[in-house]
Amino acid sequence: MTAISDNQLATRADDETARELAAPNETEIAQLDAWWRAANYLTIGQIYLQGNPLLREPLTPAHIKPRLLGHWGTSPGLALIYAHVSRLIRHTGQQAIYLAGPGHGGPALVAAGYLEGAYTEIYPKISQDEAGMLRLFRQFSSPGGIPSHVSVTTPGSIHEGGELGYVLVHAFGAVMDNPDLLAIAVVGDGEAETGPLEGSWKGVSFLNPARDGAVLPILHLNDAKISGPTVLGRKDPAEVRALLHGHGYDVIEVEGSDLPGMHYRFAAVLAEAWGKIRAIQTAAREGDWDGSRPRWPLIILRSPKGWTGPDEVDGITVTGTWRSHQVPLSGVRDNPEHLAILERWLRSYRPEELFDDAGAPTAGVLALPPRGDLRMGASPHANGGLLTRDLEIPDFRDYAVDVERPGASRAESTRKLGELMRDVYTRNPDNFRLFCPDETNSNRLGAVFEVSDRAFMERVSPGDVAIGRDGRVMEVLSEHSCHGWLEGYNLTGRHGMFATYEAFAMVSASQTVQHGKWLQEARNLPWRAEVPSLNVLLTSTAWRNDHNGFSHQGPGLIQVVLTQRGDIARVYLPPDANCLLSVADHCFRSRSYVNLIVIDKQPQLQYLTMDEAIEHCTRGAGVWEWAGTDDGTSDPDIVLACAGDVVTMETVAAAQILKERLPGFKVRVVNVVDLMTLPRPKDHPHGMSETQFTELFTDTVDVVFSFHGYPGAIHQLVHGRPDADRFRVRGFIEKGTTTTPFDMTVRNQASRYHLVMDAINNAKRLPRGATVLKQWCEQQLAKHDAYIVEHLEDMPEVRDWSLGDRAQRG
Hints:
Residues 601-802 form the Xylulose 5-phosphate/Fructose 6-phosphate phosphoketolase C-terminal domain. The chain is 38% helix and 12% strand.
């Protein structure tokens, strides 16, 4: 007799479970229907009611909220899916989270958490009785309450859904290196029209069934958005099926509105999808897999917009149209007919069967959800800080660049970061990933390929390098996908970095903002555990994308992050490799921040030893005595400040020119690595004290500040500091083209020669020889203009400039 393998036994068990799931008995159908009706009732109550939550008496205008806010149209479909996934979990023990792309279906997900008990456990005042139900209704979309969408306040959520387009990327990020997790990702047909969502179907091309969990996309087509039809809702179903099949999915379809028939049909397709997922995973994990990309299941659910709501209002069809998208009955307080329709609508769910005399859900409703952490509203995967493990990080000092003299040698700073991340990969095989849109090698981070390939489940050709199914470096040419994958990865408790060209970080800038808002709100919720920070590395920066040109030149993300709240936003501009290593180590260890690190990939001057870099980064800013002529005994004639690698080099070069050509002119050089040290402490927790600020910048001396980004950012940050008008800022002013590296600084009036002239123009004491030096600077700029046109490269005295042995540490 042939022995039956463990793989065969597991497959048979899953097959048997799937068959049971596909054929619910009458009792289970009754439980599904009761739970679904209860969820719909609670959804409508949240939108409309401020009193009489159980309809103990006839509805009156006094029971209706003064402002009717919320979205009904998508909610019945979201609740149907939630009910059936809950049944699946109860039968199988499957760990699952629920991501609602149609984020304004918030009341449906709040109702779901309430019915499974998770909501009351977190918010005890929202008790499972009449008083708690009333509080549930009154808090929705109200002052002092909760938002109308599936927000950070919603238990079980890692996906805001307020800005459409990101549900799939969050779901795929959540299941990477998370083999036991199933992410249910509901894609609304309005959301399916967005660019980020269109690009995110490709997630299946990167998911490894042996190591990762699974995403089950459910495309919910109800044919309507806020005021018209949807593209996929109106397409021929065969075209939609072909589109998704082309993306690599095994498409399963279900349609209808009849009850209980829809429950039977949806139970069958969900069971089919789960069975196929389990078959794929079992084969991959038990060695019965040829390594090719699986065809993962996807469900298309077609149900009416506003299903079970009022068919007509004022003689106009509502259910099944865009009119049910938000509040189908808007004049309930003033229109008795509307009020009567609302009461009939609410009573159609037979609340007396769903809630007992005390207002608690009945046994039939409570029988459906799973128990404990298996409830989707209580899943620790949706509160990822509970699962977060600290990264095992090697000592970053071991990767130090040897700096004998400041500004004398060059190195590619990001290459050292790549070496550090290589070893972080090795020590954290299921807890760290780099996400980068096809630019890992370009950004000098390629050392990670020594220990991991790029993840890729599609066909691999013999000429491909560092790419394959076992890879864990995530490259896809979509900033939205890379950013969103990392967000999902972070929010479920894992660590990583998103690295991209600086200008194209603006493609996903709104995601950075939305994630920052999530972290900000989470800080106000004691039950939300802190998660690994969102670490963003910008390289190939504006000042060194001279070969690509104006389209690749833009430091705008700095400005975006600066506008976020101080307890979330961090911006670092390390001037060299050792500072970058120190900053990266800090960011990898941090929790619940948006950390923005900006540094170029090209060979650049190195200034600080590792010990000096650690001290400098710890302080966030400091005086570089070796770069200036300030002896510290009295105020200098001018302060030259800088933040950013290229502008730091220009500042140090300007200080050297002043030192050599204007002896006796006292110059102080201040470098800022943590941009958030500049504001006052009351404006940002990193803000330096008044005493520290004075020690660096004095209270009266003019400051010529050379900044990597837009000049207005520095004026914003030093607002409220002593005599803030004395700060003269040079930075990127949208002057760009395909040119030489130094010409970028010239075009933006931030070159060493401009800084020297600024120093002379703003010094309180005009030194002897200053006029001659200004003329020389103007001559150098004219010489530069002519030289680059003739020779197609920068002048040797600029191109090859370094401090050499001219700068010695004190």
